[in-house]
Amino acid sequence: xxxxxxxxxxxxxxxxxIVTKHRNGASGTAxxxxxxxxxxxxVASVYADxxxxxxxxxxxVALGGYGRKELNFASDTDIMFLAxxxxxxxxxxxxxxxxLHALLDCGLEIGHSFRTIDECLEMAExxxxxxxxxxxxxxxxxxxxxxARFRTSVATTIKRSDKQSFVRQLLAATNARHQKYGxxxxxxxxxxxxxxxxxxxxxxxxxxxxxxxxxxxxxxSPQQKTSVSLxxxxxxxxxxxxxxxSSPARRGFEFLLRxxxxxxxxxxxxxxxxxxxxxxxxxxALHYRNVERFMQDYYLAARSIxxxxxxxxxxxxxxxxxxxxxxxAQAVHPSFHLRDHTLEFTGRHSxxxxxxxxxxxxxxxxxxxxxxxxxxxxxxxxLSSVRPIQTTDEARLxxxxxxxxxxxxxxxxxxxxxxxxxxxxxxxxxxxxFFQHNIYHYYTADEHTLRVIANAEALVNSPSTxxxxxxxxxxxxxxYFACLLHDIAKPERVGDHEVQGVKIAHAVLRRLxxxxxxxxxxxxxxxxxxxxxxxxxxxxNDPQTILDFAAKFQRPAQLDYLYVLTYADxxxxxxxxxxxxxxxxxxxxxQKAHDVLTGKLSAEQLRERTSIKTSAAKEQIVTTLAETLxxxxxxxxxxxxxxxxxxxxxxxxxxxxxxxAIHAQEQPTVLFKHRNDYTEVTVIAPxxxxxxxxxxxxxxxxxxxxxxxxxxxxxxxxxxxKFRVVDDISKSSLNQTQCEKIQQELxxxxxxxxxxxxxxHRHRMRWKRRTHKINPNVRVDVEFEDxxxxxxxxxxxxxxxxxxxxxxNTLSRLGLNxxxxxxxTRADGIVDSFYVTDLTGSKIDAPERREYVRSExxxxxxxxxxxxxxxx
Length: 872
Prior knowledge:
Layout: H1 4-23, H2 28-49, E1 58-63, H3 64-67, E2 77-83, H4 86-91, H5 93-105, E3 110-116, H6 117-126, H7 128-135, E4 138-142, H8 144-160, H9 163-181, H10 199-211, H11 227-232, H12 235-241, H13 243-267, H14 276-285, H15 291-321, E5 330-333, E6 336-339, E7 342-345, H16 353-366, E8 370-371, H17 373-381, H18 392-402, H19 408-417, H20 421-424, H21 445-457, H22 465-471, H23 476-485, H24 497-511, H25 515-526, H26 530-537, H27 543-550, H28 556-571, H29 580-599, H30 603-624, H31 631-640, H32 645-649, H33 652-664, E9 669-674, E10 679-686, H34 691-701, E11 704-713, E12 718-727, H35 736-751, H36 756-764, E13 767-769, E14 781-786, E15 791-797, H37 803-813, E16 816-822, E17 825-826, E18 829-838, H38 847-866, E19 869-871
Parallel strand pairs: 2-3, 7-8
Antiparallel strand pairs: 1-2, 1-4, 5-6, 6-7, 9-10, 10-12, 11-12, 13-19, 14-15, 15-18, 16-18, 17-18
Helix pairs in contact: 1-2, 2-13, 6-7, 6-8, 9-10, 9-15, 10-15, 12-13, 13-14, 13-15, 16-18, 16-19, 19-21, 21-23, 21-28, 22-28, 23-25, 23-28, 24-25, 26-29, 27-29, 28-29, 30-31, 34-35, 34-36, 34-37, 37-38
């Protein structure tokens, strides 16, 4: 007889021993089995100690990860109390209650259920997820005969079940999970359990084979292996997927278990997402010298598991979901035939393997087909024989593939997943699983690049301007080569990869006989970052910006290519990077530059055209407002605005509001306009020192995160500033309470009844200091760029609370007047651009003056980094 305290003590001691084994390098499965034995022993002891007379009528059964003997340090513990009949279930309720309470008293967090055998079997029809847990059921202790009858009944139910329906439901659930947690095995912040290539993919394979009767249910006799380990060594998997896939998957399983164990220890609980903030700690604890190597091992593990999952999924589709009557094969090549959108090998080929693979790839693209599982198995067996593209015929086939009207991204993705693309183009191999410790990117370099091609292809039916331009491109091959090679130098040097990439790409293009398109491809690689830099950081209403940008292009087609490439690149970076707002900015820049290139406009002609358009826009607004405002009054107001961008930033009714506010002389006036997911805040006030900084400070003090700002000043000194903001907590538009507080506090600050530091101090009390290290890869810098009228200052920094307030305050303190600002917040930091002059209206040209401004701004950035606040 054991008392609870001794059981708890024994449980803790065994856990400490297992943690030590893990720290000393024990394998993932060794730890999983040790944790399983630890719980098995406890459950058996509690059952044995129970003196309840009806306990012999029940069996205790482990489910889920516990049933699979796949426990990690913070895994759920699922136990089912099993009775033969409803009568015995009712009779044994007291025993179940006693045993369960004893387990809970030992400190276990248990997910438990109490069912009869018939109730378990009913789940095959009514509760799919619960039925899957029945497939993992493993006997712990108690009435062995009850469990044996349960196991026989489950096996009989499987034999009689609708296999087609089971497979369809399981594959649908897998697809939904991948959609939620990531359908790529190359995410930069993966979920080790649920993302593609995660542990759940192995569980799905196990359920797939058990649920169709291809792999046996758990035995009652003890086996010192996890269910997944037994599965991966089984003839069933080797028969369906081949040993070349199952062996790497076994190594991948070991890696994921060990990494997950460490994640649970680091988090002191259940935590499966490998975030940037934890990757380095986990890597160091597992004795890796750097996080990049650790993550590359993760990608190899995830890729091997994803391949196994894909192979078994393909087998299940062909076996259970394809029509019983096979569709007749269509001959498409002496070595291949086509059956139901699947390319199959006929069994004979005489060409070298590289040529053979390229022929198969081109046929798949042309016929919207996929490789058959047997053809992929052949590729895997012969992988070492695939040589780099060298011959004229091989180069011609690859170029034809990149010229295909559809399927280019899909086929290249598959070639990469199979390890072939890096053998065809050796320069590609360093891209595979290349990891940047940078949260701006969501995928590894190879995965991101192939998604760029897929996103470009998807524009074929898009009604957007991007789609119109894509459909009119002279050569899609040119675009796809640029997509494929635009980041090719990143594994060598991230900093100026667009420059180094030209050299690498030039060698690839020359070897592939693509000299005819090389100039455009190399141009696109060299300048693939240019369009986003100009669109997101420069004043697009400044003719000089458009002229400088347009001067980079030799002809309009290059602009078309770059416009599509920029969209495809940004939309494939991170699910939070692409927004409609960015699309609008890119399109505005594209259209203005296109007018310059197609009209071959000089600087003077562009300014004249801009002036004509501005005058026409003014007259349109004057006419629109004529019923409520006198034309003379409206015209005087518009003429007094120093920037023509004012006309583009506001609608006519908003301009009418501005005039009414100015006449009322109740400055400051604050106007709010709520969009779908952000709020526009317009402030009208007299110009004054530090005015912009004060506005930014009030917004910060009310959790309003500024992602765009337009600054306008009338010739008489009236400021009309427009901010696009989101609530820093909900990431959506501001609520009514926030708007009311912002309005009141802006008035208090402008009128001098309170100050910004007081508001920020009050705000700071609600926040606490960050608990994680700032990403060291975020760029921190200050750059200057010349402009005919202004000095442009680009500030690169960490995204910290109150950043815009502190930076604008510093610029004002340095005696600089901000005429225009462009705010660009990214996942890995920010780059904010300011068009400034000194107080006399002159540019900042003196080198020593620029260096002083730079040092002061950098000092402000670093002070913010040291005191970064996060919401408590």
